[in-house]
Each structure stands twice: as C-alpha cells, then as structure tokens.
UniProtKB/TrEMBL annotation:
It comes from Flavobacterium gilvum. It comes from the Bacteria. This is Uncharacterized protein.
Amino acid sequence: MHYKLTEEIIALSDSQAWNFAKLEWDFNFAYYSEDLQTCLCGHYPIRNICVIRNKKNSNQTEVGNCCINKFLGIEDGNKIFTSIKKLKDDNSKSMSAEVIDYIYNKNGISDFEYKFYVDIYRKRNLTPKQLAIKVSINDKFLAFTSYETNSHFNRINLVLKWAENNSSFDKDFILSLKKNCERNGKLSEKQKMALENIITKFKIE
C-alpha cells in the first residue's frame, strides 16, 4: 500500500524523488464521507478524507487521513475529524479553536459567526438564543465538511483547472459558484445543473 501511495503522489508531482515530491504537497481541505471510499494507497474502507494540493503544479488529490499523517507528515486533518465526530454525536458541543479558525479561513462561516463563537467558546452556560446560534454554526461546519460539499468543490476546481489552458473562457460565473459554495456549504440544484452543463458542453474531464 505504501508503494502505491508513493507511486501515485510522485506521478502527480514535479519531482520524481519521493523525499522531495512529498514536500510539494499542502493540506487544502478535509471531509467526512458517509459512503465508504478508497484511499489513494488502495486501502478500503475509509471515511476521513483529506484533499491535498501541490504547491508547484496545482494538482489536487485525495488521501485517507491515516496515510496523510504517516507518509506525508501532514496532520492538519486530525483536529477537524475529531470535531466532526464530536459534533455528529452532539452538535451542542464545541469545535476546537484550530477548527474554528480553519472553517473561518475557508469562508465557511461569517465574520459575525466567527466572533460570536470566539466570545462564547469558554462559556459553559449559554442562553437558549446563544445555544441556537452555536448549534447553527456547528451544523454549517458539518455541512462544509461533508462529501456533498467536497464533490461540488472538485467539479468547480476541475473547470478552473481546464480554464487555465483556455483563456477565452470567462471564469467569473465559476468563481461565483466557488464563493457561493464556500459561503453556503453546497450548491443549489440550479447551480449544480449549470455547472454540469458547462462541463458537458466543453467536454471537460
């Protein structure tokens, strides 16, 4: 399995030497899949999945959280998955401080929601209104780290990657979809249909 992972990562990297190829990659996104997935190394089943991005050529790929820790030395997903598990069990609990920063920096929550969460982070007794807002923010985090949201991002990034070599294509609409997905955690049915129509029309693969 380790050999398959290194082979796949090297194929997507500029360097053909593993010790250098693995340094080209950064953590980009994490999501929890309700459906069982297969890791890049071939291991099945997995649910905790990290999306990593190559700093040199902008390639993206998905790796199971265990492999990203063990072989790439990237541990960013650990606290995210801990918070996902905790909130799935009880969505009135709190995300870690690092995860609050993560979801905010990814535009998954608003300035108000971020400041509110920081303000009530250490409070044990919340008013019913405060608790309702906190639960709403927690639910946004769970939606943002869902398989559905990630699949939308993948399709959007597919078009943006294609557009790099097709300068006549106007990217404004696709960029607006990306911002909308970051803000709402998903696309509407109408937006999904428009995105798929573009992919079909231009035969983007």
